[in-house]
Each structure stands twice: as C-alpha cells, then as structure tokens.
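Recap from last week: sequence in, structure out.
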Amino acid sequence: MGLDSIWHWAILLVIILLVFGTGKLTRVGSDLGNAVRGFKKAMQGDEDEEKRKAQEKLQADPAPGASSAASQQRDSSESK
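Predicted structure tokens:
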C-alpha cells in the first residue's frame, strides 16, 4: 500500500480539499510565496544596509586637512 498509485494521490487530494477547502489552500500558497519573497528581500537588505552604512561613514568623516582650514578661517575672522 504505497503512495505510488495515482488513485492514492487522488484520494489524498480529495481528502485535503474537503478538510481545508480551496480558499484556505490558495491563501496558504500566496502566504508561502510572500514569506519567501520577504526572506529574499531581507537577505539582500542586509547587504544593501552594510553598503549604505559604509557610504554614510565615508560621507560623515571629514578630510583631515579640511577641518583645520575651516578653523583657521574662523579664527582669522573673529580677530578682526
């Protein structure tokens, strides 16, 4: 009594449809698809977030010479 016969599969499918109904089965399929898409997006989001943080760090760090030039300009204008 294996599940290699088409009749076993047909009976199993009919029982599943009777228990769950077609509405629940279609929602389960769409929910599963949304979960897989969300997982893939989250996996790609981690890489994108790391790249974004690296870009922000590069933009946030001022050049070493730029800060001293700005402070010298301010000092010279304050003394006048």
